[in-house]
Amino acid sequence: MKSYRKELWFETKNRREFINITPKVKECLYESGIREGLLLCNAMHITASVFINDDESGLHHDFEVFLEKLAPEKPYSQYSHNGYEDNADAHLKRTIMGREVVVAITDSKLDLGPWEQIFYGEFDGKRRKRVLVKIIGA
After folding, report:
1. Residue 50 near residue 119 (C-beta atoms within 8 A)
2. Is the peptide bond before 75 cis (omega within 30 degrees of 0)?
3. What pLDDT score was predicted for residue 134?
4. CB 114 within 8 A of CB 52
């Protein structure tokens, strides 16, 4: 059994962004040398997310609209959490989109469906944040 760990770092230009990290995760898998096993990829910040979905700009816009309806950024005063930072909405958006994904590794490849891609979702950006990639297998 082998184990591999790597941190991927991101600093977005905008408060909210979706970044396709599938190529970076594939690089990690290649570096690991693991042929069969499991890959965990998780956001290590409570206002960011890792999730799997389609890489389609219309869908990303729909995510943004959907999340803003459920947890609007403003007015900041609507949230008890807001005080030192005005990011309560980002915490809620992260909860909705999820913290991590687990992907099977089969024959040295991510075992994803035909349209599935791995994304980093940032909901309180403009600062450095990290994503953990942990791979175990043989």
Report:
1. yes
2. yes
3. 98
4. no
Provide the H-helix boundaries in 41-117. 57-70, 88-97
Please list, residue by residue across 36-57, b when 16 or more beta carbons sit within 10 angstroms of its beta carbon and e when fewer do.
Answer: ebebebbbebebbbbbbbeeee
Residue of 99, 97, 92 whose CA lies nearest to 132: 99
Q: Which residue has the tokens 């190529």?
A: 23
Confirm if 108 and 16 have CB atoms less than 8 A apart: no
pTM of the model: 0.96
- Pseudo-torsion of CA 18, 89, 129, 15, nearest 10°? 60
* Tens-place pLDDT, residues 83-122: 989 999 999 999 999 999 999 999 999 999 999 999 999 9
